[in-house]
Amino acid sequence: MKIETFALERWMTTYELDVSYDITESGIAPMSLREVIDLVPADEREALLERLLGTRLGYSEAPGSLDLRSELAATYRDTGPDEILVTTGAIEANFLLFNVLLDAGDHVVVVDPAYQQLQSVPRAIGCDVTPWRLRPENGFRFDLDELETLLRPETKLLVVNTPQNPTGAILSAAELRRVYALAEERGARVLCDEAYRWLEIPGGEPLAPPVRDLGERGISVGTFSKPFGLPGLRTGWIAGPADVVAACWAMRDYVSLSPGKLNDLLATIALRHRDQVVARTRAIIAANLATADAWFAEHADLVSWQRPRGGLLAMLRYALDVPSGELANRLAEQYSVMLAPGSAFGYEGFLRLGVGAPPELFAAGLAETARCLADLRATGTPLRAGAERALVGAS
Ligand SMILES: Cc1ncc(COP(=O)(O)O)c(C=O)c1O
Question: Is 161 in the pocket of ligand 1 (CB under 6 A)?
């Protein structure tokens, strides 16, 4: 398979180990191993540590342990452990699904912009990929009437992602039901990348149920990376019809074979204590949102945003007439701040902001960003034509 370069990953690796303020990350400040162990009641920790230390590091159950698959299955309607495959992150889940479900020439509609894999893998398979664009002038909302015009009678797969990376857009429960119905009318399946499941904005709108709950055409992808702050476990999953899950498992024999044994065990512990973990995640997001709200208000002459409606990402709009790639490199090299360029998503004049970083680091990163923009303004960088107008009402 020939596949295009994952542009954003390449850009991130240039800077991510060197910068002090990574405030573009798509995840939440990771939990430590100790924090995971401390999720269990104090009187059970000793036994858990003994179990971990005594674990023989052989191959684990190839589709994921029955314990983990059963816990995951219980988070969906009418789903058993055979309808779950534990994968090496959501990234492997998506990769397997595309390769199992699609052939060269198939028509696929994919939300745009998107986590690049969602478009690049279907393209590499040779599919005809139609983007379903989220537009800043529309508040990054999913336009369902437009979707109706993009779907064709022969469309094989519709790929959505809610809450969304990079815009923070969401499909409401009613919208997701309509998406599902539109796909069903055409005999297509819906793959929903639910990497940001459980991440409602504190005090915000409720999230739609997983697409798996809507019927047999719905396939949900999940991960421990985002809501749990455990990307180092490299553990995700597929929830879908048993035949699709079995086919993905068969393909996975050639890719990663099975989950890591310790990862599977730690993921099971985290899932059993999901409420505690998600409370931690939401507390970080709430603190950073409050900081961001104040920062955007203070610097309203230079920046604005569409606050995330779900998940933890949003596009930051800046008013200076400087290309986003140039600004992102300047921020990283001279201010030690990482903010991904909007150009990576086809949004010139924007940077991608993540609200999952440790709160102190997040606040310091925003302060440095404001300093960079003020320095540029002071040294004569003009405002982008129409920027003042664009900023009004954009938050
Ligand atoms: C929408 C989306 N899907 C999938 C992934 C991959 O996540 P994982 O770490 O579970 O492989 C990411 C990571 O950023 C993502 O944002």
Answer: yes
Residue 234 CA: nearest ligand 1 atom is: 9
Q: What ligand 1 atom has the least distance to the C-alpha of 114?
A: 1
Q: Which of 226, 230, 233 to mutate to test the pocket of ligand 1 (most atoms within 8 A of CB)?
A: 226
Contact 245/97 with Cβ under 8 angstroms?
A: no
Residue 390 has pLDDT above 70, yes or no: no
CA atoms within 13 A on the CB side of 196: 34
Q: Ligand 1 centroid vs 349 CA: distance in angstroms?
A: 24
pTM higher than 0.90, yes or no? yes
pLDDT at 39: 97
Cα 290–19–311 angle (5° rounding)? 40
Whole-angstrom distance, CA of residue 185 vs CA of residue 301: 47
Answer CATH for 57-275 from 3.40.1360.10, 3.20.20.480, 3.40.640.10, 3.40.30.10: 3.40.640.10
Average pLDDT over the chain reads 95
Integer Cα distance of 227 and 273 in angstroms? 12
> Check: CATH 3.90.1150.10 for 7-32+278-391?
yes
